[in-house]
Design brief:
about 300 residues; alpha/beta; eight-stranded parallel β-sheet; two-stranded antiparallel sheet; 12 helices; globular
Length: about 300
């Protein structure tokens, strides 16, 4: 069984733990602060460590012998936290790191530049590469479906409180999107692959073939959805004066440009079949998005 450790914060964390446990092929250790009151499912080993401390001795010890470090933190976490985790993983000799990147195609420079995500991407990849110990895995799944359906008019355009819908341009630009469970299933499946081919004739998928690139590319379904150009411009102008209230509008409108950036499937293909991912029925995920919206449970945390 492979040993996985992870910083278990963020929206996707609980789904990821659930799928890893269901998979039954992993020993999962959740790294959490000593003061944390978060309850973990049965079967998860808990390591209470002050991972924000400059003294990483305890964190390095927890990470020794782990195959993968999975980082799932809120985007509002201190920016140096992920770097501290990455450095500790290198000291512990962890072969793989999944940074806190669950969404945009990290290989699409134009999309990441316009969405203001490139600096964070480059900082993380540069640090992992500089240390020269771990390989990175970056999940390409675009926006989380439930979160985006329930997130209001600045995301997929639905406002379930006001019973209104904002269409982006003609509403006919397809993008890929994924649910939290499907995102987590993809990671669990990926980490269940054997490390290397058995010999030169072995063509079956391996974990090593996915390292240091944006994979796996996967989706739940296609979603189509005022002017995206105008919405994006408004977001850009707001960000120039550090108005973070328009960041979400900027981020989502950029994805719906009619140039294929949001539809990575048509340009690069998918890894759903390779990983044996099921085709989901979106009714349950849609209901969850509506429930979250009506109960005001969608803070910006993508």
């Amino acid at each position: 069984m492979s040993r996985l450790s992870g910083y278990a914060g963020g929206s996707v964390g609980r789904h990821l733990i659930d799928q890893l446990l269901k998979n039954g092929k992993h020993i999962v250790t959740a790294i959490t602060r000593p003061s944390s009151t978060n309850k973990m499912p049965e079967g998860v080993q808990i390591a209470r460590v002050d991972y924000a401390s400059d003294d990483d001795t305890a964190l390095v010890e927890v990470l020794r012998g782990q195959q993968v470090l999975l980082i799932t933190m809120n985007v509002m976490a201190p920016p140096d936290t992920m770097i501290k985790l990455i450095r500790a993983a290198a000291k512990a000799g962890v072969p793989y790191i999944e940074p806190n990147w669950y969404g945009h195609d990290a290989a699409n420079d134009s999309l990441c530049d316009d969405s203001l995500l490139s600096p964070n991407r480059d900082r993380v990849i540069t640090e992992i590469t500089r240390l020269g110990v771990s390989s990175y895995l970056s999940l390409v799944c675009n926006f989380w479906y439930e979160f985006s359906v329930g997130g209001g008019p600045d995301q997929f355009g639905f406002d379930f409180i006001k019973r209104s819908l904002t269409l982006y341009d003609g509403g006919d630009v397809p993008i890929n999107t994924s649910t939290w469970p499907q995102t987590s299933r993809a990671i669990a499946k990926l980490l269940s692959l054997k490390e290397l081919p058995e010999d030169e004739n072995d063509q079956s998928p391996t974990l090593s073939q996915f390292r240091n690139r944006s994979v796996p590319r996967m989706r739940t379904g296609l979603f189509t959805q005022d002017s995206v150009a105008e919405r994006f411009k408004e977001g850009q102008e707001g960000m120039k004066v550090h108005n973070w209230n328009v960041f979400t509008k900027m981020l989502y409108s950029r994805m719906f440009f009619a140039n294929g950036d949001g539809d990575y499937e048509s340009r690069r293909g998918l890894d759903n079949e390779l990983l044996g991912l099921l085709v989901e029925d979106l009714d349950e995920a849609t209901a969850e998005g509506i429930r979250m919206a009506e109960n005001n449970e969608v803070p910006f945390s993508h």
